[in-house]
Amino acid sequence: MNIAVLIKQVPVSNDVSVDPETHALVRATSEGMINPADLNAIEAAMVLKEQTEGKVVVFTMGPPDAEKALRDAMAMGCDESCLITDRCLAGGDTIATAKVLAESIGRYGTFDLILSGALSADGATGQVGAMVAEYMGIPHVAEIQGFAYDESAAGSILAVKKFQGMEFKIKAALPALMSVCFGCNEPRLATLRTKRAAKSKPLEVYTNAELGMAADEIGLEGSPTDVTDSFEPESTRKAQMLSGTPDELARKLKELIEIEKGKE
């Protein structure tokens, strides 16, 4: 089974700057890492690869330094990678991003399954995976905890999805796209040996010269979403450390609650 994994490089910390004109994150000013939920998607892909003897190709769209995230993914076991980078793609919203990813996947090759993280640590919209599936015209199952593949039932895969205390099993025809929930598995760690091996694994670079997408489909111009402002919300919450015996702590906590109620 050939599997594509969509990953995103996100800031390591909240210490990021915002472009005053576009209101987009200035990613070049902060260190990046693979989005946490995408690590779970990579692990799910690796398990399925081992079961079916396929290959895993990891895709990301971002600045040139996003190559690091791809190398890290290949150090986890992914076989190949594709970096989609071009200045004209910058500032794209989820719709413009999904169009570019769908076009890139189609150009790269044929895949039986596409996986992505359910949510990103920075935007957390949960939209890109579903949009990519729509542009590619394939089924999509969102926020899964796992899946089961039976080779005897070729042409389909069973997704496991939990919602409000219930577990659902959803059968999808292949090719399909599924977004994987954060924390649903334990991502494997790269070793010094696999990190070295990742340096020589294939990494394809696509710019819009290769994709040939129209200017009104990509980047800011191709984004129907208009961000009018971005700001860091002010927090009035504060922490207070309490000490004492259980009875003393209970009394102090009761007093604090009554004080807060009196402020309302």
**Category from helices, strands and their pairing:** alpha/beta
What's the quaternary structure here? single chain
Topology-level CATH name: Rossmann fold
- Which runs of at least 5 residues are low in confidence (pLDDT < 50)? none
What is the radius of gyration computed over CA atoms, rounded to a whole number of angstroms?
A: 22 Å
The domain tally reads: 1
Instruction: State the major sheet.
Output: 7 strands, parallel
How are the strands of the largest sheet arranged?
9-13-8-1-6-7-14
Strand and helix order: EEEEEHEHEHEHEEEEEHEHH
Could you say what the CATH architecture is?
Answer: 3-Layer(aba) Sandwich
Pfam families: ETF
Protein name: Electron transfer flavoprotein small subunit
Organism: Extibacter muris
Region (Disordered): 221-245
Describe this structure in words.
With 264 residues, the protein is an alpha/beta fold. It has a single domain (2-217), classed as Rossmann fold (3-Layer(aba) Sandwich), CATH 3.40.50. The protein is 30% helix and 25% strand. It has seven helices and 14 strands. The chain has helices at residues 36-52, 67-75, 94-108, 128-136, 192-198, 208-211, 246-263; strands at residues 2-6, 9-11, 17-18, 25-26, 32-34, 55-61, 80-84, 113-117, 140-144, 146-148, 156-163, 166-173, 176-180, 203-206. It has a seven-stranded parallel β-sheet with strand order 9-13-8-1-6-7-14, sandwiched between helices. A three-stranded antiparallel β-sheet has the order 10-11-12, with no helix packed on it. A hairpin with a 7-residue loop joins strand 10 (146-148) and strand 11. Helix 2 packs across helix 5 (192-198) and helix 3 (94-108) packs across helix 4. The protein is globular, with a radius of gyration of 22 Å. The model has no long low-confidence stretch (mean pLDDT 90).
